Every structure is written in C-alpha cells, then in structure tokens.
Amino acid sequence: MSTLVLGIGNVLLTDEGVGVHVINRLEQKYTGFQDVRFLDGGTLSFSLAAELAKHNRLIVVDAAHTGRSPGSVVCLEGGDVDRYMKGDRKSVHEVGLGDLLDMARLAAHYPEKIALVGIEPFSIEWGSTLSPAVEKSICVAMEAVVQLLCRWHGTLTKNDTDGLC
Fold it and tell me: How far apart are CA 107 and CA 27, in angstroms?
C-alpha cells in the first residue's frame, strides 16, 4: 500500500498555489518515508493519471472554496471528497481534480483511500506569495496530512510530528 500526497495549484495566483507550498514544505521535512510519495502536481494535467495509478491511496492538498473564512483548513475523506467534487467546482487548472479522479475511476485505478486537505483562499489574483491568512494555515494543513499518514500507515508517531513548523 503506497500513498501519493499530491499538492496542486498555480503558484502565480497567490493562494491558489497553497497546495504546492504545503507539499514542498512536507517534502523538506519528511524525507525517506517508506511508501509515501510527495508530488508537486502544479496545475494538473492528464500525465498525472499514470502517477495516480501507481498508488493505492491519495491525499490531495489544494485551495478549496468551502465558504469558510480565508485560511480555514478542511480534511475530507472518502465519499466526502466525491460529494465535494460533484458540487459546482470551477477549476483554474488545465485538468480539474474531478477530471483526474474520473479518469482513475474509468481506468480502474481509483484509490482505495482518498482525502482532500483543502485551504480556503483569500485571493487568487496574480501574485507569487500567499496571503497572510493562508500562510498561517500552512502548518495546520501539514499537520492534517501527517495525521492522515499516521492513521493510514501506522508508522509515524507523535514524535515524528513534533516541530512540524
């Protein structure tokens, strides 16, 4: 059982790139996890379908419009991810996450476990830095990912998550 932790977003659109920022920080902090791959998925493309097919579990980190206050972090799992994706979700990505998951489903490569760690954006205007509210949420999002990995893999301990940020 392996897990793909996929950060998606456009780092040229302020908070829209938060998933990439989270993944980059997780990858720096946690090197050498067995059966875990951190991947900067950028603005998504069909080429990610092949990578997705290599893993049984998927954690996606992305900006997510949930109606909460900017910087709020949500963690959706299983059917909740599907319900969220079926809503009126507009994507600035070349290929939407829903499209990628539909491809995986059609190819019989849909992950056995799936989660979405979403961060409510403040702005998706042109800019290369995160808004202060979203920057403050990075550690919360990282912790949510690590908690999922702990639960799914059972190989991490509380000590592994100390000093996360």
Answer: 29
